[in-house]
DNA sequence: CTAATATGAATGAAGG
DNA sequence: CCTTCATTCATATTAG
């Protein structure tokens, strides 16, 4: 059965190691057609519809569809710019990192001296984010800090539903 | 000035000139810890403090911290929603499944945790299924769809690939 | 088997 | 807060 685009090793488990989605020719054609039809940024409505359509040809998720369109857009634009690259000063254009426009922000939340620290959300992933491996350089300092604030951390809601 | 975040060799002048700030493992750990501790929306006061702490491990600005928390919040909320939706939905089985709320616009983002110890590629599989350009499998369906939307095709993109 | 390329996916930054 | 762009990473595929 054509479960995913990537046929790895359909042996033991039914989980083909969901690596990254591999759009099939048919799916690509559809996506390209839509893109070329003028739909470069399909709204949710359209995205779902497209996903449904693509699903018939192969497993695909809304995220995949959105990612596809997003990447497509970026690539197209970048390609155009790269091609058009000319008469432009290669100067670094200055890297002003001081765009802190944090005027007042909405930092009027959760009172520290109150019991409103009840987070509804909170990822249960601590060592996620990246595949970095502490080098032990200054990890000691981090550890110290962590040991100091280790307390609530009850953000992990294993919502069993 | 440029406040590059990724500073591999502070002495060497061969800085890869990172456009955007790349939080280091230690910084990420601290940020995540704070977030998980209940501080999901630190006020300016706290933001500055955090920045100070992070600065010791690498160049970082208040804006970076603010952005980080902002993105983190959105990501968490999205993940929670996606998780809830996925719990009930057996899913379309396949690649990524991200059902964002997408009110009426578009969706984005897709959190994923990859903690796999991969030794790199190493697949000795030489015979690949290969993807022929439409084998005529279900192209009929695709054609139907294409016939439905074929029109002006305002695609102003010369894709040569 | 290693290198380069293509593309999907993740994250930071900015706009609304 | 939500949406979107831009940059970067990771992996799959193809070439050498």
Question: Short summary of the structure?
Answer:
2 copies of one chain form a homodimer. Chain A is an all-alpha fold and 161 residues long.
General description of the model:
Chains A, B: Residues 16-80 bind DNA. Chains A, B: Belongs to the WUS homeobox family. Chains A, B: Residues 1-23, 77-98 are annotated as: Disordered. Chains A, B: It comes from Camelina sativa. The structure is a homodimer of 161-residue chains. The first copy, chain A, is mostly helical and 161 residues long. Helix content of chain A is 37%, strand content 0%. In chain A, helix 2 packs across helix 3. The longest helix of chain A has 23 residues, at 62-84. The interface between A and B is large, with 91 and 87 residues. Chain B binds a DNA duplex (16 and 16 nucleotides) through residues 18-23, 63-64, 67-68, 70-71, 73-75, 77, 95-96, 101-103, 105-112, 114, 118, 121-123, 128, 131, 161.
Features:
DNA-binding, disordered C terminus, mainly alpha, homodimer, 161 residues
- What is the C-alpha radius of gyration of chain A, as a whole number of Å? 23 Å
Strand % of chain A is under 5%
Major sheet attributes of chain A: none
Indicate the structural class of chain A: mainly alpha
Number of DSSP strand runs of chain A: 0
Given as residue ranges, the uncertain stretches of chain A (5+ residues, pLDDT < 50) are 1-15, 86-101, 107-135, 156-161
> Of all protein chain pairs, which has the greatest interface, and how many residues does each chain bring to it?
A-B, 91 and 87 residues
Oligomer: homodimer
Global morphology of chain A = extended
């Amino acid at each position: 059965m054509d479960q995913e685009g990537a046929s790895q090793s359909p042996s033991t488990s039914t989980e083909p190691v969901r690596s990254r989605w591999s759009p099939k020719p048919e799916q690509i054609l559809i996506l390209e057609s839509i893109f070329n039809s003028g739909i470069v940024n399909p709204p949710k409505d359209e995205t779902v519809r497209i996903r449904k359509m693509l699903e018939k040809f192969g497993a695909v998720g809304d995220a995949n569809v959105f990612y596809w369109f997003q990447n497509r857009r970026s690539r197209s634009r970048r390609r155009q710019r790269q091609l058009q690259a000319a008469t432009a000063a290669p100067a670094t254009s200055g890297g002003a990192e001081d765009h802190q426009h944090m005027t007042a922000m909405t930092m009027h939340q959760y009172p520290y001296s109150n019991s409103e620290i009840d987070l509804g959300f909170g990822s249960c992933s601590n060592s996620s984010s990246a595949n970095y491996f502490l080098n032990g350089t200054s990890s000691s300092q981090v550890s110290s800090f962590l040991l100091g604030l280790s307390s609530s951390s009850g953000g992990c809601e294993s919502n069993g539903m």
